[in-house]
Design brief:
361 residues, alpha/beta, Isopropylmalate Dehydrogenase, 2 domains, 10-stranded mixed sheet, two-stranded antiparallel sheet, binds 3-isopropylmalic acid, binds magnesium ion
């Protein structure tokens, strides 16, 4: 039997509530698809830090190399210094395990979920490939004369040829796959590089890496947009995009915008990927402390992250079962919105997805 070792970090706030629903769906799909898995629980979170003062210990990174994948709920606690636990858990994992791609699909399942006028599911279906280990997130920098009137703060944006090249290559390969799925009569596959090389000259490293990789994919159209213009196009003509490849920070920012186009933070999912190695899947929303403990958070982002994980593990059938069930529940209006106003509790929504998956099989 196919068997996977999966780490689980439910985390803070609404994290444990949505993670529970993700695992509920995973259990149902495993049974239908006939694969097994072992869950390894990890307590790392702001909550855990407040109790124990423990962040992620270095040895854990090595332990995680032995996992097939990790599912993360959400990290962030209002009583902990902002970013401390996020940097240890989220960035610690991304950097420690060299998960160099942050894959963020932006797909609209039902017109009613989209805040844009006259845009429907046929207009919003693209993927952001966010470089995930460099850029403004390099953690290289610091303070001089801290807490004095002369304080200086420096942060370095770090871009390497290797980092840009592999992100671009991943994006082109993904565009090729998406094109093959759409078939020859549909639009040509396209990759858009998003950077800011008019103002930030060293971003031209991205242009050169992109151009070199593009040579290996003559059948794929290329495009380029500055990040500010990209935000404009995402609202004005989202149908232009197929695959976007971009820097760590720009990818972070444009995917919150992208999440709104597909129905809100409650539905957006992501994968932190190192092809062939341990990868981590999470909703893109945070711990939303104000909604915590109320059973009102939308678990669809987490559930879709489970679908992405299964796709990564080669369990395409299981991945599609989840995606099709979520799509149908949103399309039919059975789930009217992907936020706390849906009128459906977190746990009931997880049950609905499981029921839909069973009904369709
Ligand atoms: C995300 C989040 C993280 C990021 C934070 C929590 C460090 O915003 O996954 O998009 O900036 O990458
Ligand atoms: Mg973000």
């Amino acid at each position: 039997m196919r068997n996977y070792k999966i780490g689980s970090i439910p985390g803070d706030g609404i994290g444990p509530e949505v993670a529970r629903e993700g695992l509920k769906v995973l259990e149902a799909v495993a049974e239908l698809e006939g694969f097994g898995y072992e869950l390894v629980d990890y307590p790392y979170s702001g909550e855990h830090y407040l109790k124990t003062k423990e962040l992620v210990p270095d040895r854990i990174i090595d332990e995680w190399r032995g996992l097939d994948a990790v599912l993360l709920g959400a990290i962030g606690h209002p009583d902990v210094e902002p970013g401390l636990v996020e940097r240890s858990v989220i960035l610690g994992l991304r950097f420690g395990l060299d998960m160099y791609i942050n894959l963020r699909p932006i797909k609209l399942y039902s017109e009613g979920l989209c805040p844009l006028k006259d845009k429907g599911p046929e207009d919003i279906d693209f993927v952001v490939v966010r470089e995930n280990t460099e850029g403004m997130y390099s953690q290289i920098g610091g303070h001089l004369k801290k807490n004095t009137p002369d304080e200086v703060a420096i942060v370095n944006g770090v871009y390497t040829w290797k980092g840009c090249e592999r992100a671009c290559r991943y994006a082109f390969e993904l565009a090729r796959e998406r094109g093959a799925v759409r078939g020859p009569d549909a639009r040509k596959p396209q990759v858009t590089l998003v950077d800011k090389d008019n103002a930030i000259r060293p971003h031209d490293l991205w242009d050169r890496a992109f151009a070199q990789v593009a040579n290996d994919f003559p059948e794929i159209d290329t495009d380029h947009a500055y990040v500010d213009a990209c935000c404009m196009w995402m609202v004005k003509n989202p149908e232009w995009f197929d695959v976007i490849v971009t820097t760590n920070l720009f990818g972070d920012i444009i995917t919150d915008l992208g999440a709104m186009l597909q129905g809100g933070m409650g539905i957006a999912a992501s994968g932190n990927i190192h092809p062939g190695k341990t990868s981590m899947f999470e909703p893109i929303h945070g711990s939303a402390p104000k909604h915590a403990g109320k059973n009102v958070a939308c678990p669809l982002g987490m559930i879709s992250a489970v679908s992405m994980m299964l796709d990564f593990l080669g369990e395409r059938g299981g991945s599609e079962r989840i995606e099709n069930a979520v799509a149908e529940l949103l399309r039919s209006g059975a789930i009217p919105s992907a936020d706390t106003r849906s009128g459906i509790s977190t746990s009931a929504m997880g049950d609905m997805v499981v029921a839909e998956i069973r009904d369709r099989s």
